[in-house]
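protein under study:
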Amino acid sequence: MTKILLIASIALSMGAAALGYLNRDKLKNAQLEVENATSTLATTQEKLQSAAKELETTKISIGTEKDQLTSQLTEATTALEKSKVDLTTASDKATTLEAEVTGMKADAEAKDLKIAELEQAAAGATTAAATSGPPSGQAAPSGAEGGSSPEMASAERDEARTLLAAAQDENTALKAQIAALQGKEKSRQTSQMRQGLQGTILAVNQAWNFVILSIGDRQGVVTNAEMLVQRGGQLLGKIRVTSVEPSTSVADILVRTVPRGFTVMPGDTVIYQAKRD
């Protein structure tokens, strides 16, 4: 009986040793898994912190960009309102200028007629002075009736010549003003923009089909110039400049040139290409 108990005890001891060995390996594996999980958790936490910082930075950047875009939109809107006022003023000024030129031309024509009349009067006075002497062999009349006809004729002639000279001077001045105004208008109409001049669309008014450009008089933009609108190298249509400011300008969208399904947007590029004869 004692032998059986001894054998059983040895068997149990051996089983316990084997079980302990197996449990030790499992414990080591479990410890390794815990260490790996802890390392992974730490890495994940670092990534989360980094992502949180990037998110905060992105929020700040987006806020700054939003403020900048809002400021640019406000400036573009202000420039647009100013351009509208300037366009109205320029139109009124052009109308007034045309009326002044028309009036000057009428005055010049009237002066021409007056000059012709004065020339005829001077010629008549000269003829009267030449034929006002007494007939041959007859004394010149005296007193109030005869008076001094040659002197009167000479005075009339001098007065006519003075009026003629004044009218000619005034007419010359009028013609010089007309020529200057016509020269300015011709210069404005024939002004040419630099080939390849580029700019950007700052704002678009879809309701009235006009845009605000980032280029103006300082860059050489002139009114009535047509420019191409491009986006990523693709042609979107054309615009025509209607008003020019020092650093911005206003242009109408030529709707018929914009393909169906496309719209002109802020950020699009505009480029000037002169028409070839």
